[in-house]
Amino acid sequence: MPASVRRILLIILPLAAVHTWCGRAAAEPPAVQLRPVSYRELGDIVRAQRGKVVVVDVWADFCVPCKREFPNLVRLNERYAADGVVCLSVSVDDAAKHDAALAFLTKQKATFANYRLTDKPEVWQKAWNINGPPAVFVFDRAGKRAAKFDTEDENKPFTYDEVEAVVRKLIRPAP
Question: Do both 116 and 130 map to the same domain?
């Protein structure tokens, strides 16, 4: 092989490898993360989303109904993110369960923002007026709470169909 061809191949082959690697990297989904935050920081995060409809799903690794319904949050995000809906998951697990919660989120492919509250349960239970998870809060584009779904009424647990109905109403443009 002539030296000039070898030189060209030495230049082109590494570039082709980089191009192939970059193409693969772009096709990979974003990594799932779980960020510890305080209740106050979470409030700032939600307020920063003004102009969008925000769905906050409060869950825990120990909560069977939470984990059963969580795929619905993932589907809601997939369906409505393009319409200005922001889905956030908030784990109320303690720090010792951080890795288990992250493993669950990774298995669910929850690539949206995921947070773990660092406050004691008394703080968020009082602030949200709930006893524990599951709970879902929906905020309108102005940042006002439009709906709260929780298990306070044990005779009627909420469904994600109800959550989605509120989201659809909020993303519909006003007549």
Answer: yes
Adjacent-strand bridge partners of 149: 136
Dihedral sign for Cα 108, 73, 91, 44, please.
positive
Range of the domain at 125: 31-171
Q: Whats the size of the chain, residue-wise?
A: 175
Distance, in Å, from the CA atom of 58 to the CA atom of 115, rounded to the nearest integer, reads: 9
Residue 43 in this model has a pLDDT that exceeds 90: yes
The pTM assigned to this predicted structure is 0.81
- Token pair recorded at residue 79: 């369906």
The tally of domains found in the chain comes to 2
CATH of the domain at 147: 3.40.30.10
Cα 145 from Cα 140, distance rounded (Å): 6
Say whether both 122 and 58 belong to one domain. Answer: yes
Is the pLDDT assigned to residue 138 strictly greater than 80? Answer: yes
Taking only the tens place, the pLDDT of each residue in 162-172 is 999 999 999 98
Phi, psi of 35 (to 5 degrees): -100, 125
